[in-house]
Amino acid sequence: MKQITILALLLILQCSTTFAVNYGDVYEVGTTYWSEQQNATVGKMIVRDGLGGTHFTWTKALDEGLSERHVYYNFCDDDSGDIEDQFAANASCADQGDRAGYASIDLYPDGETMLATCFYHASMSAVMAIDWERGFGAFSEEMFQLQNRMAIPIVVKGTIDRNQNAHIVAVSNPMQPDALSFGLTIWHGLSNGNPFEWDKSIGFEIENTTGLSHRIQASRESDRVALAWHHNLVGVPAPERWENSDAHGMNNDLYLIESPDGDEWDLDNPFNITRTIPADNDREGLLAYGDTLRPYNDVDLIYVGDVVHAVFTTRGFIADPRDIGDPPVIDWTTEESFIWHWDSESDTLTLVADGWYDNEGILGSLYSNVDRPSLAADESGKLYCIFKQVSDEDVDDNNVCVSDVILALSEDGGITWSEPINLTGTIYDDEDRVSDFISEMHPSIAETVDDCLHIFYLLACVDLGGMGEPEVVEYPMIYQRIAVEDLPEVGVLEMPRDNFTYHNLGNQSVNNELVNGQPIEFGINGVYPNPFNSRTSVQVDVPSTEPFTLAVMDVSGRQMAILHQGQTAPGSYTFNWNAESYPAGIYFINLKWEKGSTIRKVALVK
């Protein structure tokens, strides 16, 4: 086994920066023996500083024993010569202990320069480390601790707002082997203009969660700061009937809290992005099964102006409306998945990536066919979402899936997304090639797209020619830089089927034996097609005889058409809009009733 390990390491050194990708150039930023950079939400492990600099952070285990684990940092500047030479000279350790990890990065604005700021867990604390100078690589640590010393903050995410204040969120491990829950805690730090002297708040525990899926992000153009996480729907710890089931960890909504100024946080009243409808035996037909998609394990956030955008992964989940079984679930999947986009302006969920296909390849328990979305935008507001994708068409000799980094684009604020573009394309071809390190993991894209996309990921190896992979090898951390002008023109992503929306049954079929029910709340259940050329249909759930109005508004808020006004019997209805006489552009479908309203953004193209 030791001979195999030495051979593998020699081959890494020979070829780690020369593997072929479909687009752009690749550079080795550093290495690590620690393959699992993040167990769930990746966050940002790469950031551009607007001055031509690119900053990176990752978790580095120093040897195959994994006894020492540190947070490493590297930096390159567009105007400072050869990038490979810079990486060889600039790598440094950010933490000051003997065990740290799960790192993410942001920037502290210091006058006309930017200081790299790393967030990670170490020494029983959530840690923020700030570089002494731009790209210097010498860090000053600030510790944010829990009042409960019997718990440890882990998976730390952080952001610095434009007022030089820090916002940090982590989940805490209660150090109990049978624990199913993690305490979601938030801290704030005031620098008062000095990046090395902080007034730190006491950590506030928001709630218990079942996973490690959380993100916090500051706007670059306003004082807004947003926090998102997965909220479990059955309570934590789980009721006995849900314990030790995949369904329990998947049964989530996606919650968001937005502070208007980074200071005032209404932590008791989060906004429910997904608003999952529970299974209910009193509803009619398929409606009795409620929603059949659940947020799982991933979320990323960015701001475009004052609008916050989120991308997240879902798996399929069919709860039993009769509330029987242990757990009360008819079926779920641990591989098939979708990636979705949401924004605070339209409050609409749209499909980014379709991973709903059978996959016989082997995946880890925390991974899905498409997952780990990471979001960026350029100055025009065009959105770029990278994610990881696998299939059983690309597996190693042990049938383990090999992953690629995929890109989807949106030019209309997230309403529609492009067909997938494979950025890496490193296909395993079943040859006896020990040198293959071709499975890209934990992808992260810098939130700012300039002339290039800036992407960072771990490059993992496949099975070593059937001999069996060593337990631990040294993995390269890869920077892939892709000129925007080199990206291909692709069409709009096709929906998996007619009338496809977020509140949908995936490709599964269920027993439609339940009757005598009705919708439990007003809502726009879907708009199809969207975008559309001249005609589209709006599906509306009506829970009562209360009057409601369904209208079409333009971007200025002017009413353009009324599709319904008055009352109907309870049920689900489809209303058609003929827009042949309207100019192309963005419109909003506005459903309004006595106690509330909701909108959907639609795109008319001609």
Can you walk me through this structure?
The chain is mainly β and 606 residues long. Residues 1-17, 430-435, 464-470 and 506-517 have low confidence and may be disordered. The termini are far apart. It has helices spanning 2-15, 83-90, 246-250, and strands at 25-32, 46-48, 53-61, 69-77, 92-93, 100-110, 113-122, 125-131, 139-144, 152-160, 165-173, 182-190, 199-200, 204-209, 214-218, 225-232, 252-259, 271-272, 293-304, 307-319, 329-343, 350-355, 370-377, 383-389, 404-410, 421-422, 439-445, 452-460, 475-483, 523-528, 535-542, 548-554, 559-566, 571-578, 585-593, 596-604. The strands form nine sheets. Strands 10, 11, 12, 13 and 14 form a five-stranded antiparallel beta sheet that branches. It is globular, with a radius of gyration of 24 Å. The longest helix has 14 residues, at 2-15. Helices cover 4% and strands 45% of the residues. The protein folds into two domains: 25-486, 7 Propeller (Methylamine Dehydrogenase, Chain H), CATH 2.130.10.10; 523-604, Sandwich (Immunoglobulin-like).
